[in-house]
Amino acid sequence: MGAYQPLLFGTQRINEAGHLEIGGCDSVELAERFDTPLYVLDEQHVRERCRLYLSAFRSRLPQVEIAYAGKALLTKAVCRIVEQEDLALDTASAGELYTARQAGFPAERIKLHGNFKSDGELLMALREGVGRIVVDSLTEIERLSRLAQEEGKEAQILLRVAPGIKTQTHTFIQTGQLDSKFGLSLSTSAAREGVRMALSLPGIKLQGLHSHIGSQLFGLDCFQKGSELMVEFMASLREEFGVVLEELDLGGGLGISYTSEDTPPTIEELADVIVGGLERACAQFNYPRPRLILEPGRSIVGTAGTTLYRVGPVKDIPGVRTYVAVNGGLSDNPRPALYDAEYMALVANKADQTPTQAVRVAGKHCETDTLLAEVTIQPVQEGDILAVFSTGAYNYAMASNYNRFCRPAMVLVNEGQAEVIVARETLDDLVAQDVVPARLRGAS
Ligand code: LLP
After folding, report:
1. Does domain 13-42+303-425 have CATH number 2.40.37.10?
2. Which residues contact ligand 1 via a Cβ below 6 A?
3. At a CB cut-off of 8 Å and minimum separation 6, what does 261 contact?
4. What's the CATH superfamily of 74-296?
5. Which of 246, 263, 390, 403 has its CA 20 to 30 A from that of 341?
6. Looking at residue 1, what is its pLDDT?
7. Domain residues of the chain, as ranges?
8. pTM of structure
9. More confident residue, 167 or 331
10. Helix %, strand %, coil % for the chain, to 5?
């Protein structure tokens, strides 16, 4: 093995051939066998992250529920893994809920989120018997009350509160501040009004409160502040309505490493701050400790994902820069374009070589779809395999068919085995939903 050691995650290592290996599988062989672009998911790493969450929180507070936020990456196989690891599941749409139920995920361990759930989505949640519906607005409480009565059911709800905390992250993924589309504001009378309605309307059982303040967070202060504000609010509700709410969901948000400069807190540190903050707040307001729920997404699957691309033309513009084209881009990873997100990469078939070449990696879409604006990788040439790290969360989940690209396959790797968990889309899949009206069918 060469001297060079990049920052590796989970079961990633450099094997005897000098190739990147994940889950005991040589990534160059994976690229040959399953074609590229290819999402590779490290099963053991996902399981480890689930276990770390459970052990870190349950060792401090036995009753904690960890609900994986499926928006980060949801496929039927991922549902099976998460269920086997004893996590609950957060869904944010009929599609996510359907996927989970198709995978046999127990309904009572599922929550449904969304700032504008349709009647159809609410009915689906009621009929499937999901554990909690996280209600986001006053009109949704009314609608849910009506639908629940029509169905002869009682909806178990959490009320989403915007606690008024502005987090240090990309503005697109800040969600807890006053100026946000999500939830009922604490600083206006909306949250209090929501509680009043939820307590009085038939068909609704208010189990507790929910807040989610942002994503890819590195600072832990906001979690502490969040639990304090929520417990203070719960204590004030006890005063006003004589109700003691039993559950407090503090959302997700823990950041991960995308580059070597990113040093997120550990899950243990997060648990210390959240559980410590909750206990202090409960003591301060003399409030019985509610059952804590968390909803991590990115920090469960993010670093477990790697995308493999085939390298195309390498274009050197002397005195300017070198462009390396790969056979994917915006359609399989929109995060650089959306959030200026940065990633680390290496040439998978030369993984043991020292990175010496500064390049810009671009996709193959019909626009400037920069995937990695500036990265130093091993000397690269057409035909090589480029591995981009930390693509497990919000990549496949946000993939599109832009330029009529087929979305990549995903393989699950573990102990030398690789299994397809999402088949590569085909050209026929791309036209499957197209309809040509009869009047357009004849010859011109
Ligand atoms: N719970 C709720 C209510 C959420 O809205 C989210 C994320 C989570 C949990 C999970 O947060 P996480 O642990 O993954 O940070 N597409 C963006 C991220 C959007 C996050 C939306 N909500 C990105 O690619 O960075």
Report:
1. yes
2. 69, 71-72, 90, 113, 173, 175, 212, 215-216, 251-254, 295-299, 335, 339, 393-394
3. none
4. Alanine racemase (3.20.20.10)
5. 403
6. 45
7. 13-42+303-425, 74-296
8. 0.97
9. 331
10. 35, 25, 40
